[in-house]
């Protein structure tokens, strides 16, 4: 049963889907055409932590589905790098839920996975919206500050290092309330969660980013040209994880692409610029619904 708009909580939107690889956890609220939200990566991150504030707004117009990637939230843990497990999990989720073409919104890692889904499986993505996560920096140094601080945390997981990483994710640290930080710390310090995030972020990750693997960049560029879905890429002007200049290549190479930049905003636009984010993204997604 789908949660009504008056009842949206973590528990009454919580759902599971059995797959051959394990249980995928997701949240569901609202009626209407389906909408898939994909979260970012990092300590204590889940679909709920990324999008809980946006779910009531999107649920007014869509059957909104927020998936936890393998290695995050309450989905199954994975032996491999969670980034490698994410796209197959999304395909398993769409198949298991009986969904064909859906609009997809992805933050950071979720934006990267959504873009790969749109490039490799164009029949699955009706519209694509990304919040950072696509492109590669043209002018900014690599690895960026936010990734360095993230690796520092996973190698020595203290509350102080978590706060330092969280501060790099936003423009205004005032939004990092004690409750917000404590919620992330409780999840991020769990040994199982730490084990999964260490498979994704470690010293080898930093070394690879410093090397700017040419073949990986070429592959990314090729994928961008394959995206046929109407696409809205959004960035925080002050993003210290995926810098704004990362938007230049996708803006040029994705055939049907628009760009929106949130001023005074870091990596978490859906949290830090909540109202503007919801207005911009809903207007874009509803172009199909209102036709």
Summarize the structure.
By secondary structure, this protein is an alpha/beta fold. The chain is built from 14 helices and 8 strands. GO terms for molecular function: hydrolase activity.
Task: Provide the descriptors you would attach to this structure in a database record.
single chain; 291 residues; alpha/beta; Rossmann fold; eight-stranded mixed sheet; 14 helices; 8 strands; 17% strand; hydrolase; Epox_hydrolase-like
- The CA-CA distance between the termini, in Å, is 28 Å
Can you name the CATH architecture? 3-Layer(aba) Sandwich
Mean pLDDT: 92
Biggest sheet strand line-up: 1-2-4-3-5-6-7-8
**What is the CATH domain class?**
Alpha Beta
Extract low-pLDDT stretches. Answer: none
Q: What's the CATH topology label?
A: Rossmann fold
Largest sheet: 8 strands, mixed
CATH homologous superfamily (4th level) name: Alpha/Beta hydrolase fold, catalytic domain
- Can you tell me the number of structural domains? 1
Q: Which overall shape is indicated by the principal axes computed on the Cα atoms?
A: globular
């Amino acid at each position: 049963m789908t949660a009504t708009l008056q009842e949206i909580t973590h528990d009454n939107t919580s759902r599971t889907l059995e797959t051959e690889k394990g249980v995928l956890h997701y949240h569901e609220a609202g009626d209407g055409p389906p909408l898939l939200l994909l979260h970012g990566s990092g300590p204590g991150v889940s679909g709920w932590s990324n999008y809980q504030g946006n779910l009531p707004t999107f649920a007014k117009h869509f059957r909104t589905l927020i998936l936890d990637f393998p290695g995050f939230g309450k989905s199954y843990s994975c032996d491999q790098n969670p980034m490698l497990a994410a796209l197959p999990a999304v395909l398993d989720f769409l198949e298991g839920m009986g969904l064909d073409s859906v609009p997809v919104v992805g933050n950071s890692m979720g934006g990267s996975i959504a873009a790969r889904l749109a490039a490799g499986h164009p029949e699955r993505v009706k519209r694509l919206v990304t919040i950072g996560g696509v492109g590669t920096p043209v002018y900014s140094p690599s690895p960026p500050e936010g990734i360095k601080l993230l690796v520092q945390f996973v190698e020595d997981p203290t509350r102080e290092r978590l706060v330092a990483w969280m501060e790099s994710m936003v423009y205004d640290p005032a939004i990092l309330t004690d409750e917000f930080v404590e919620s992330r710390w409780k999840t991020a310090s769990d040994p199982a969660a730490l084990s999964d995030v260490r498979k994704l972020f470690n010293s080898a990750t930093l070394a690879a980013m410093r090397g700017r693997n040419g073949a990986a960049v070429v592959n990314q560029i090729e994928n961008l040209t394959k995206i046929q879905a109407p696409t809205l890429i959004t960035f925080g002007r002050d993003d210290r994880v995926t810098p704004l200049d990362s938007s230049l290549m996708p803006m040029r190479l994705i055939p049907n692409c628009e760009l929106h930049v949130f001023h005074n905003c870091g990596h978490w636009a859906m949290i830090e610029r909540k109202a503007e984010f919801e207005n911009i993204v809903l207007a874009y997604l509803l172009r199909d619904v209102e036709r």
